[in-house]
Design a protein that fits this description.
The chain is of the alpha/beta class. The chain has 11 helices and 9 strands. The protein has one domain: TIM Barrel (Alpha-Beta Barrel).
Length: about 325
């Protein structure tokens, strides 16, 4: 079996005593620790909530900061609410980032729906029915990245740097049921099992078929991951305390426990799903607790052979 890789999904939730900027600074520190400890990805989620204490609404401006503060970890958004943005602007920004930080930029697409007023402000359009153009826009971005000559000739559009690198693109989904679309548009897939209780469906055959067909079309093996939630602590009692105090409501298919419990569950998932990478959303609201979890997971999964910093409990 391949070594398990673990990435992180970040919503910017921290202790309410901190200001929004305090939370942002803690997220940056958390990303730096994850980079040093050998985690594979650091993804920021876009959420437009009515709260004066949110760390961000759209975190896109944080991406170059995180990329500059880290050395190896992939950084990206999981994902951009592409229904509400220009496909051209999204392609321009993420292509430039990928060429500034080669092989490290990820562009995930999400189908979330902000409150109606926020949706109207994002689109500068006083619509009543929210747009449903996600497939069209993803296709446009794919063509901007991978059909540059055709777009330049037909539309007189060239996105700098012309013929430069394109970021890895990800379809965020609750299943592996849209592999035809993913293969067509060169989309890696990250399947969430924490949004719905019934999403723990093992589709190993579909994953293997997707990987094989993707390779045949594009000549590379796609990234496939499972996104899950929970929290990791040195004792099960402490993990349960952190989870209870997190304010998080839906622990669908969560892993709340010790590093060895994470190892057992993820090793099982590795076999049942046919994937080697997992994206972990930690519900802990304390950076201290999160970093203890990072250190413990890095050690038990051997994510980094370098010296791991010890933190006193």
């Amino acid at each position: 079996m391949e070594q398990i890789k673990i990435g992180l999904l970040e919503f910017g939730k921290r202790d309410t005593e901190y200001s929004s900027m305090g939370k942002v600074l803690e997220v940056i520190d958390y990303a730096k620790q994850a980079d040093e400890l050998g985690f594979s990805r650091f993804w920021l989620a876009e959420h437009h909530n009515y709260s004066s204490s949110e760390a961000w609404s759209s975190p896109q401006v944080l991406l170059p900061i995180l990329l500059g503060e880290t050395e190896q970890i992939n950084v990206g958004m999981a994902g951009v609410l592409i229904n509400y943005y220009s496909s051209y602007e999204t392609a321009v920004n993420f292509k430039m980032l990928e060429n500034l930080y080669p092989t490290r930029v990820n562009l995930g697409f999400a189908a979330g729906t902000p409150p109606l007023k926020i949706s109207q402000l994002l689109c500068q359009n006083d619509f009543k029915d929210r747009p449903d153009s996600i497939n069209t826009k993803i296709k446009e971005i794919y063509e901007f990245f991978y059909k540059e000559d055709e777009i330049a000739e037909r539309e007189k559009i060239a996105i700098p740097p012309f013929k430069g690198r394109a970021p890895e693109m990800f379809m965020l989904s609750n299943s592996f049921n849209k592999i035809d679309r993913a293969i067509e548009l060169r989309l890696n897939i990250s399947k969430s099992i924490f949004h719905r209780s019934d999403s723990l469906i093992y589709q190993k055959d579909e994953v293997n078929q997707y990987k094989e067909r993707f390779y045949q079309k594009h000549g590379i093996v796609p990234s496939v991951s499972i996104a899950f939630t929970g929290t990791c602590a040195l004792t099960e009692k402490r993990a349960n305390e952190i989870a209870r105090n997190s304010g998080y409501k839906n622990f669908f298919n969560a892993i709340v426990g010790t590093p060895s419990q994470f190892m057992d569950r993820l090793s099982e998932y590795q076999e049942l799903f046919g994937v080697d990478e997992f994206i972990f959303h930690d519900v802990a609201v304390s950076n201290y607790d999160r970093i203890i979890g990072l250190q413990s997971l890095s050690e038990i999964f051997n994510l980094n052979k370098n010296k791991i910093v010890s933190y006193e409990i």
